[in-house]
Automatic annotation (TrEMBL):
Record's protein name: Mutator family transposase
UniProt-listed GO biological process terms: DNA transposition
Keyword vocabulary terms for this entry: DNA recombination, DNA-binding, Transposable element, Transposition
Region (Disordered): 62-86
Family: Belongs to the transposase mutator family.
Functional description taken from the UniProt entry: Required for the transposition of the insertion element.
Compositional bias annotation for Basic and acidic residues: 62-82
GO MF assignments: DNA binding; transposase activity
Organism of derivation: Streptomyces dysideae
InterPro entries from the UniProt entry: Transposase_mutator (IPR001207)
Amino acid sequence: MTDVSVTEAEGRAEELAAGVDDELVAQLVARAQADGLRLTGEGGLLQQLTKRVLESALEGELTDHLGHEHGEKSEGGRENYRNGRRAKTVVTEVGPVGIDVPRDRAGTFEPMLVKKRQRRLGGIDEMVLSLSAKGLTHGEISAHLADVYGTEVSKQAISTIADRVVAGMLEWQNRPLDAVYPVVFIDCVHVKVRDGQVANRPVYMVLAVTAEGTRDILGLWIGDGGEGAKYWLQVLTEIKNRGVWDVLMLVCDGLTGLPDAVNTVWPATIVQTCVVHLLRNSFKYAGRQDWEKIAKALRPVYTAPTEEAAMERFLEFSEEWGAKYPAIVRLWERAWAEFVPFLQFDVEIRKIICTTNAIESVNARIRKAVRAREHFPTEQAALKCVYLAVMSLDATGNGAKRWTRRWKPALQAFDIAFDGRLTAAQR
């Protein structure tokens, strides 16, 4: 069977449905209503139609397998033939449906639509994964399916469905990557994991912008909160081994040891501290009544035309606020080497790389899924939840279009600023 895209499959299904006689459909609905039958729910018309469609499709599969129609003799005699049916109940999007599965005498018939020992159709599995991505617990998913669809799916069955994601997650985490990325962002969300006792654990996400201007999440890694250069060297080497031989700029939030690891793996990469995070961290050391004044005083620093001008404005800030908030001055001094790189670029690059806002929208979706769970029993359970949330991003594809529109001007500026390193990798 040839694979088709979801959009193409929906189009074909719509075309096929349009060919069904409208008068016949109206007669079925009218008769069901006259007899007091429900259209949906257990015992409803839709459930019975699903039964008929499934049984008809299974009969067609058996005919293809045997090579002759029901009651028709095959050439050379019947080496194999129909041998009754067996009753089976499958869970579908319209509720549990009892079907009669045809059998053959030789026992060689392997149905594809509803496989042997299969108790759920694919739509239910997809529904479970979608609800898991939204952060619902296994118990909540089971209750939701029972309340809305009248479908009984045990918590153990839901756990089994969700566990199948692990293989796909491992494959995704080890997939080949592009040779070069103009910008890579690194940020994290915190999850609660029960490891003896419940503790906050960071899940780091590495998000890249491709040379075409699309978003590519390179992977997920969980830490213990005390990560240093050795940890980041392992993560970045793993990314490099998957095919990434050059990164033009890497934007992060002052992660300890990360700049040293970046310089080891990609010596030509510029490490840039997120300015927005730097401002937020500054406010932690100031009284709320001074936040607006501090933000106004720091603005000339990060909007300065050159590094020299930024230093002059910073010295002015230090004279004004250093006595009251010395911790803010020390914070900026420690981050200065990773703060100033973006000042050498034009505005198209500046407004893109001076913040991790590109990754914050993704983190917001992840946090929404994580908050729905008080804590996770294992690291793998936490990673699985985050992975499902990542896979459910941008279901309509509109987000990818916005990304491309937003990044196109910056990518042209990147290639000029970095002497053609970006387009050289695409040749």
